[in-house]
Amino acid sequence: MLSRFRVVEVGPPIEVFAVNEQYLKDTFDQKVNLSVGAYRTDEGKPWVLPVVRKTEKQLADDEALNHEYLPVLGLQACSSAATRMLLGAESRALLEGLAFGVQTLSGTGALRVGAEFLHRQLKYTTFYYSSPTWENHHLVFTNAGFAEPRQYRYWNSETRSLDLDGFLEDLRAAPKDSVIILHACAHNPTGCDPTSEQWTQIADVIEEKQLFPFFDSAYQGFASGDLEKDAWAVRYFADRGFEFVCAQSFAKNFGLYNERVGNLTVVVNNAVHLQPMKSQLTLIVRGMYSNPPNHGGRIVATVLNNPQLFEEWKESVRTMAKRILDMRKGLKERLEKLGTPGTWDHIVTQIGMFSYTGLSPQQVKHLTEKYHIYLLKSGRINMCGLTTKNIDYVAKAIHETVLDVPGDSINKI
Ligand code: LMR
Q: Would you state the pLDDT for residue 406?
């Protein structure tokens, strides 16, 4: 009998996980993984934050806790603390009761729940994402029913900086009610964020053209080590009275990658809409996964709501941000010392987990095949994959690669 599944074709691989797999299979002892965006210690190991470990032990010993279902919109203690962390305790939207949170399956789940809501309830169909962006934005929004994916210009490969004119021009041409995905900080993959002056101009156009801002905040604290600074853009939009949503992830800043804890913050300009919105969000979540898991949400809630644990966590966030800054400086210095052709300032001016090196796909291939260094085709490297032990090796490999494979590069060296 012929199988009904014969119509199913193999889909394209997910690059970031495929490259990570390749790295894991490689037996070369000097191999380096600069692919998937996950923090590593200077020993190249994943890091369970001490405050997370401590909280987990405390939760495991707490006889008052059980495994009952969470509410459909998640643990209130988690979502309210996450919303406060994003908007700031003094936020006008919070003080006036115009904001709330929904605990989600990490940042991706928040994007999906938010997109489903905007598509089903407001009938929005067009979304814009930066060129380039995190490769999953497209899939999440189209799976949520958005039929019109579009890109706005973001990266100028000549100047290795923001293409503000292109960005604003594309926003001006966007149809009313287009959803604009904005990286709150530490833009993935370029590591290049608008300045506050540039955010002002972006906000002006979004307001004027009646577009809808959808922030993606996956790196609060990670970019600068400072939670407040990394939330500047989101808070600016809130202070200006915009209605918007923001997907928050606690994968990176809590190191809770596989616990899938996130939050969808919703900001409105009239509290009368909150109850209907919450009831519709409840139905969306109920129809997708019924209710979120407890463990990660409980950790985040415990830490964010306890002043002492909160301080300990902020210290760990600073440790991670600082190690990344040290690696940026170290890589730039080494490339300059080696006399590697090109300029390398962008490695220190970009912020967050990633650097958009400017290496071409051919150079990336060479780095992987000859030196066993794994990175994305776009030239994006995870700065956390660099350590004091492998940074000389990586710098030398980049140096030799740039000389051996001159770039007919899309991101020109
Ligand atoms: C990344 O960009 O490498 C991470 O955010 C992992 C992912 O899910 O793509």
A: 83
Residue whose CA is closest, atom 1 of ligand 1? 37
Please report, for residues 300, 328, 357, the alpha-carbon distance to residue 395 in angstroms, rounded to integers and kept in the order given.
37, 11, 12
What digits encode the pLDDT tens for the residues 200-256? Answer: 999 999 999 999 999 999 999 989 999 999 999 999 999 999 999 999 999 999 999
Q: Is the CB of 37 under 6 A from ligand 1?
A: yes
Cis peptide bond upstream of 132, omega within 30:
yes
Q: How far is the CA of 139 from the centre of ligand 1 (A)?
A: 13
Q: Which of 251, 188, 187, 222 is nearest to 35 (CA)?
A: 188
pTM of the full structure? 0.96
CB 249 within 8 A of CB 352: no
The residues assigned a catalytic role are: 134, 216, 252
The model's pLDDT over 359-369, given as tens digits with 9 standing for 90+, comes to 999 999 999 99
Give the residue among 342, 343, 367, 347 at the shortest CA–CA distance from 357.
347
Q: How far apart are CA 220 and CA 337, in angstroms?
A: 33
Q: Which of 243, 138, 252, 128 is nearest to 185 (CA)?
A: 252
124 conformational bin, left if phi > 0, alpha if psi -120 to 50, beta if neither: beta
**Token pair for 4:** 């009904």
Ligand 1 atom 4 nearest Cα = 37
Q: Could you tell me the CA-to-CA distances from 103 to 111, 269, 410 in Å, in that order?
A: 12, 21, 39
Measured in degrees and rounded to the nearest 5, phi and psi for residue 276 equal -60, -40
> Which of 16, 39, 133, when mutated, tests ligand 1's pocket best, judged by the most ligand atoms within 8 Å of its CB?
16
Structure tokens at 188: 């993935």
Three-state secondary structure along 356-373?
A: ECCCCHHHHHHHHHHHCE
Q: Cβ(309)–Cβ(302) under 8 Å?
A: yes
